[in-house]
Amino acid sequence: MELSGTFELENVTVEEVWLALSDPVLLAQAAPGCEFAEEVDDPDDVDFDALRAAAADREDPPTLPEADPEEVAERAIEEGDHYAAVLGVKIGSVNPTFEAVGTITKREFPEMHASGEGASSDSSFEVSSGMKLTETDNGVQVDWWAESDVFGRVAQMGQRVMNPVANRLVNRFFSQIADRLTDVGEDSPNVRDRIKDLI
Amino acid sequence: MSIETIESDEVERGKAVGSSMQRREDRPLITGEGQFTDDLKYPREVQLVILRSRFGHATITDIDTSEAEAMDGVLAVYTEEDILASGLDNTIPGDGGQDHTAPVDRHLLASQKVRYQGDPIAAVVAKDRYTGHDAVDAIDVSYERLDMVTDIQDALQKDAPVIHEEAPDNVAFEWSSGNADETLASFDDAEEVVEVDLSINKVVAVPMEPRAAVAQYRPAAEELIVDLGCQSVLGVQDHLSGVLGVPEQRITVRAPEVGGGFGVKAQPYTGHILAAWCAMQLERPVKWQATRSEAFVSTNHSRRHDLTARAAIEDGRIVGLHVDSTADVGGYLTSGGAGVPSGAFGTRLLGQYDIPNAFVEVTGVFTNTTTLSAYRGAGRPEAAYVIERLANACARELGEDPLEFRRRNFIEPDQFPYETPFGSGYDSGDYEKTLDKALEYVDYEAFRERQAEAREEGRYLGIGFSNYIEICGGGAGGLQGGQLRIHPSGKVVARSSLVENGQGHATGFSQIVADELGVDIDDVDIVAGDSDRVPEGGGTGGSKAITMGGNALKEGAKKLRERARAIAAHELEAATEDIVFDDGEFHVAGAPSRSMTIEDVASVAYSGNLPEDIRGLEETTFFSPEGSTAPFGTHVVIVEIDPESGELEIDRYVAIDDVGTQINPKLIEGQIVGGVVQSIGQAIYEDAIYDDNGNLLSGTLQDYAVPRAKHVPEIEWDSTVTPSPNNPLGAKGVGEAGTIATMPAIVNATIDALEPLGVDHIDMPLTQERIWRTVQEAQEE
């Protein structure tokens, strides 16, 4: 299954979007249905139960706009990083919970690629994806694409059901990012400058 | 349209055969009293749920069952290891390892590799079904996904993924039949060669009741009792015994009400075999009921071929027929997985035509899809489709009317029994007769005029014919038991191994028995569907209930009548040869007052005072027919197509079938109508579609378009009667005729409608989109 799209964020800079999309904490919060996302050393050996327990005991640090941009930059994802996440989605009549691992395969401003795979009790997916940021007259355009192979129960629902769900999830994700960044732009002009310097 | 039925008490003694008596099977089904497998509940019953592969092709590196095993309410979780530890070899019967097939096994549970989405991997037995499904979800299978191939053409490519190491080229079988040299030579000399390339869609049989079984084991007696919706209680007994190593006399197999068989319940599958094995392991009743989704991925699919069919023509006659086909067998070779797309298909390709030279080659191919085997018609719908599409193409090529071409090529009535170059025989036939009768219903000339007028108005009508034969009803060497007893009360009980799947066996059998014995139809009870209570014989399938089961009971009843005659002679103090039997009464020739009814005879038959050789009224016959039967007919379809939208509407459907002697015309009409509806499904709506990742996309009733009532036109049915010389009743099989006849008639009608738009070919299913695209492409050319 191949998906792609464009999302426009108004009144933000490329650097702000880049920093926001580099923040694992914010990414996890913005991803619809994401229970948690944790960096892991070995993507082939992930103890999801332990990660889940650890995530439950921990409070997320502040994210943009409240967070200190330097702190965000400090924890930013890097090429080669591996993350494990638990994602719950609703597709048609089924609500699979996927245990997924992903790897950042490319991170060169303003372009980022990631690949990953996940499995639920009756379905699996493999995905490679990417996005590229471009400055526009009044903000930033995110061009994104994903190629996925889906197996099992969810896949049997066919693209007719899956495509709209995938598009909706991606749009919801970017809307979340946009909401946070709008606050950055409006409330804290000096944060904007600090972010610009960071990239 | 429809034939009127009569109540059983309106049936005159001795005249039951040929009457449209109401089905005696209906009352329990309509009132809800009928019990299907899942309605049966046994004390301490537990539920089996099967974990099936999500991938079309993968190796399994680990199966972690610990979490599932620890769940409350879970009794056991089994994998291949447990099966092997119990002493079984983990295989179930299939068509692999024959002379012409790849040496490939089917397994009860996969361990190292899965080969289609739905391949069984592990089994959970739990106190209730919900817990069972939750536990299945908790089993952690580590897969390494492999490249997969779901299409037969792709599977034959050099670099295609290998599905079985034992078949490195993915070839499951290679088969051919006919006189190859003469056939190929006939093409060299032919005036004209006509060729069609056809792609036949893969369909899923959708019985209303998905497969199910409940098994009990009595360890002290070492007895296994399995209730399941199936087509052959003795067949299931056989393969359960073979797989599980339980002596067959200690296995009881019973079929309660069966919600449709259609060939796909005639087969060893993991589900019911595993239920029986689990019952033996746990020593308590184990039930398995497939869900609809599970049925879609695990019950055999059918009919997928890609083929080229060629006709060599001399003087307007087909003198050579050559068919080269590639057929899909799915991930494994099931029972019939090789037989159905080879012999059952290939040797029926002649249709109604007198063709001296014919040669067919079929290559069976493994794909990462659900296994394929018999579905109502089993090879013959595909064969009829091929020859009837080819017949139309020949007429088109010669620039003549399709009926003219057909009539010239028909086998003539005096050519029967007819033997084809494939070595199969047709018992009897009169092909002009059903065609002529069909034309009494459809005024062909008037239609052609109407069609021409409609075209001028921009409306596209088409007419399609299917002049089909099939070969069915058992064959020489086949055996079918029939067992009858007249109780002292005069009531008759007849027993047969055929399993009722909705056909109305008990109705038809009782008509045959009542007439032979001259008793009231309501005094005849039929016992079937219980391996302990029926004589040896076959199962339901291949349209043989009446030709085999009916004839066995007829012959048995005849023997029983002769037994009764001897008792009557003894009682009436006359010689047996002087006793006349008339409408249920024995009397001494020339002295009609010295008489006994058959009931009177029964009342004295069970007495030790009778000579030993005439005590009791019980007979068992093992019937074997002279040969198979070849029903035939003509189906005519008129369609109207809107090329702008691709919509197809069936305007008329006329079916004229000749199934030999008719026991109950209403049942025959019902069989034909049901078959036609299933075949309308394949022709217009149904398609088992896989994506490149081996997912069955049309795996629910939302996505897989079984025809609904609104899709089915009124079916005008009539018949001719050409008895079969191969059995005493003169009957021919009927169960599959409708599915065999329909597809080519609909497709031929569609091409006829679209011919002015430049369309001369289209494949099934004739979805709106496909028709629209075909028209667009034809217009562009």
Number of strands of chain A: 7
Given as residue ranges, the uncertain stretches of chain B (5+ residues, pLDDT < 50) are none
> What is the CA-based Rg of chain A, rounded?
17 Å
Overall geometry of chain B comes to: globular
What coarse outline of chain A follows from CA principal-axis ratios? globular
CATH topology of chain A: Alpha-D-Glucose-1,6-Bisphosphate, Chain A, domain 4
**Taking all residues together, what is the mean pLDDT of chain A?**
89
Residue ranges of chain A: pLDDT <50 for 5 or more in a row?
Answer: none
CATH homologous superfamily descriptor of the domain at 427-474 and 628-781 in chain B: Aldehyde oxidase/xanthine dehydrogenase, molybdopterin binding domain
**Number of E-type strands of chain B:** 32
Share of β-strand residues of chain B: 15-25%
Strand order across the largest sheet of chain A: 1-7-6-5-4-3-2
Biggest interface pair, counts: A-B, 13 and 19 residues
Overall CATH class of the domain at 427-474 and 628-781 in chain B: Alpha Beta
Could you describe the 3D structure shown?
The complex is a heterodimer of chains A (199) and B (781). Chain A has 199 residues and is of the alpha+beta class. Chain A has a single domain, classed as START domain (Alpha-D-Glucose-1,6-Bisphosphate, Chain A, domain 4, 2-Layer Sandwich), CATH 3.30.530.20. Chain A has 7 helices and 7 strands. Chain A has helices at 14-20, 24-30, 48-57, 69-75, 153-156, 159-187, 189-198, and strands at residues 2-10, 34-40, 82-88, 97-108, 111-119, 123-136, 139-152. A 7-stranded antiparallel beta sheet of chain A has the order 1-7-6-5-4-3-2, with helices on both faces. The longest helix of chain A has 29 residues, at 159-187. Chain B is 30% helix and 25% strand. Among the domains of chain B are: 427-474 and 628-781, 2-Layer Sandwich (Aldehyde Oxidoreductase, domain 4); 480-623, 2-Layer Sandwich (Aldehyde Oxidoreductase, domain 4). Chain B has 20 helices and 32 strands. Chain B has 781 residues and is an alpha+beta fold. The longest helix of chain B is centred in the C-terminal third of the chain and has 28 residues, at 545-572. In chain B, helix 11 packs parallel to helix 19, helix 15 (505-517) packs parallel to helix 16 (545-572) and helix 18 (665-685) crosses helix 19 (737-754). Chain A binds chain B through residues 121-124, 126, 149-153, 155-156, 158, and chain B through 54-56, 117, 136-138, 143, 145, 293, 691, 693-697, 699-700, 703.
